[in-house]
Amino acid sequence: MFSKKRHGGSRVPQICPKCGCVYRNGIDNLLCPQCGETMITQGYCPVCERYLPQAVGALCPKHEIELEAFDPSISQPVGSGASVSWVTVGVYPDSQSTAAPRIRLEAEGIPTFVDGERMGSAGMYRQAIGGAKLQVPAEREADARIILSQTWSLPADEKADFEDLL
Prior knowledge:
The strands form three sheets. Strands 2-1-3-4 form a four-stranded antiparallel beta sheet, with no helix packed on it. The protein has a three-stranded antiparallel beta sheet with strand order 7-9-8, with helices on one face. The radius of gyration is 21 Å and the shape is elongated. It is built from four helices and nine strands; from the N terminus they run E-E-E-E-E-E-E-H-E-H-E-H-H. It is α+β, with helices and mostly antiparallel strands. It has two domains: about 15-75, no CATH class; about 85-150. Mean pLDDT is about 75; it is low at about 1-10 and about 75-80.
């Protein structure tokens, strides 16, 4: 396996598109020692918070957002000059209550983070941290607040079609 030394400040894993071997060597575009194919940068999903065995720019199969070239050890996207600043857009009694708004934001391509997601029982949220906080990157705050303020209901002429279900 390759050396784990930093080279050019990057430790983003590389993946072989042919055989699928993954190497975290810090050097871009090396040849795969298994098959000789040129290695490509492995994509990082900011929602899954992990690298996936796909190239940068491919879509995350779970969240359908573009994978980034990201190095979590430096807490910022590769090539970016600043770290991500998270802001709270909603406070909920527990992490389960954040599910619907979180899914809505992620469907619109806004990454989310729930502060206090792994706290334990629901009663612990109110006492320990005041609830589960739904957070988004600061630059997407305005979009997130607009999306969360929207409500949806059936138009009056279509309600008759669903009266037996309501």
